[in-house]
Amino acid sequence: MSLLERFLWTAGLVCAAAGIFFVIQARWYLNRSLQVEQKVAVTAMGAKVARPPVPGVSGVIGRMEIPGVGLRVPIFPDYDEGSLRKGIGHIQGTATPGGLGTVGLAGHRDTYFRPLRGVTMGMEIRLIDETGVYHYTVDSTEVVTPDRVEVLGIASRPELTLITCYPFDYIGAAPKRFIVHAHLLSALPDIAPP
Known about the structure:
This protein is an alpha+beta fold. It has a single domain, classed as Sortase, Chain: A, CATH 2.40.260. It is about 20% helix and about 30% strand. It contains two helices and ten strands, in the order H-E-E-E-E-H-E-E-E-E-E-E. An eight-stranded mixed barrel has the order 3-4-5-6-9-10-8-7. A two-stranded antiparallel sheet has the order 1-2. Helix 2 links the parallel strand 4 and strand 5. Mean pLDDT is about 80; it is low at about 35-55.
């Protein structure tokens, strides 16, 4: 076996090991997001109120699901590179799920947000955190340049904006952004009984 063959075999094995590691890591964080349970506190009057979400040890603050495209992914409190390797990230300064304003979530087009290419108007999006399940409906999609930060602007109703790079099959740093706009159906989450 020549030196080149050994090098290529070693490089191939390292790439395969890295791929296996990232798949296992992604499944672990998805499982952590599935363990985000609704925490319900009971007031002195007996009313049930949701507690605010607190990131767990894993950093997972919730989960996003779009059943229409088979997407289920953990949400992290920031959209730094480490978070986006494990799931999608909450854009700092935007609203929290179910809150007033616009919730901004970002993810990579070539990993977790690849299914967004199949999103259509009227599809359901669920954001799940410790306070409950929030239901959103897709209003529109658009392709914009990266400088169009107004896509995260506060609207007249609570909204959700998903952001990823575009085109989906582009090799390298993509020149545009694919945006999904959705609105919140109810400010009260589905809360399971204690």
